Amino acid sequence: MKNIKIVLLIWLLFDFIGHAQQPNIVYLMTDDQRWDNFGCYGRTEFKTDNIDQLAKEGVVFDRAYYAIAICMPSRATIMSGRYDSNHNVDFSYPNNLTFSKADFKDTYPAQLKQSGYRTGFIGKFGFPVTDEAYRATGGVSGYDMQKNLGEYFDYFAGNGVHFNGGFKMWPKDAALEKIYDTLRPPNERTLKTGDAMIHFLETQPKDKPFCLSVSFYAVKNDKDEDMYPPHVKVFENYNFSVPENWVQGKNTKLPELLDNWRGVPLHKARTSTPELYQKLVRRFATQGYTVDLQVGRLVAKLKEMGILNNTIIIYTSDNGRFHGSHGLYDKSILYDESVKQPLIVYDGRKNKKDQGYRENAFVSSVDIAPTILSFAGIAIPAKMQGNSFKGILDKTQNRDLWQKSVYSESVFITNLHSKANIPDFEKANQDIIKANKSYRSRGMRDDKYKYIIYYEHNPVIEELYEVEKDPYEMNNIANDKNYAAVLTKLRVETEKKYQSIKKL
User: Fold this and answer.
1) Fewest CB within 10 A of the end CB: N or C in the chain?
2) pTM for the model
């Protein structure tokens, strides 16, 4: 009996030490925040001082890219570590499945909770998790966030946004209910997210590691809930710089196929004149500034609690946006304004000499989930398709064996999105393809080139950019015979990658 007690004590001791060594993880994600809308990425006019400080003391990735660059599928990809063509959780037919609970158990929050972490989620939960996966034609109705997500998150304050998942919060707590009091001004939504973030930390047990995922509703332009009046005044008379590839009016150099994409008419309505451009960029800057102040609050609270030195903070967004670049608005299409990802990783456990630098390794949004699990020392599920870049951060990765390119795809079709009145979606889909109106695409980005193929067009449309010399992707060289070998190489690599990731 005595020996059994000794063994039990030893086991408990090692269990305690193991948990003590596991870092706390805070994952911060904004909505539609373009990669260059930060001081640390070259545009100080956006006033992101706290994020810039995090970057100064952490690692800034200069070649991070989204595997898919539109809200719902991007969020599913980031949380699951799986490509969209594999999980098929997207907006439009035939890629409009819900995420099954059998699959969700292999996401980073579910895996962390199973391993003893306290898990929290605040803000916009971007995709529906259901008992079984099914095609969500016309959206999801009657969705209960707590019923479907309660087993994965100890703390939750958010809603579904894209699938009629109404706002829910748990556990029942008077302070949390006060934060989301309906009498509080709607335009304090980002502040409420920040308040809930601080409340999560204030209710954190000292003997347990945590992972808090914060998904800000900002910086999407179209919601006044994120336009906090005092912060609107900061930018109300400011004229922002304009990117070199911003196009006034229609861009005649784009493939005509993209006229079927909503980004063309949205550009005309929102960003096609200097006045329209400035009006919206001020909104983005305002919302980004409010988010930045919440990041400052987070770091200050972690310092106050004495746990910053055992906390990893990851800052990114779910996708970019064009905002007039290429004569487009919105996201999804595979130019850099849409698919290039802001990514900052701060690790409070590391010495200052091991941080405060820029990283040039190629990483993908599909790599985030396996990296988070690696931070916690948790085995990466076989379903995850991304690669942990922990070795890159620790400088233990053999760079010769690391990925030399990143793959991105776009499968959203506006005319098939949430249209419950279409009698036959398969026929409607095939009609779009036969009419040469499908702009589904995939592509690769390596050291020197960006390749894009609109693979359902007949004949296929290809684009090739020598991004080393043409960073704004303004000169398509796909038809230049001098680059024929490069074009062939990337065409083959893109198809090979797609075949390796697609759902069988």
Assistant:
1) C
2) 0.94
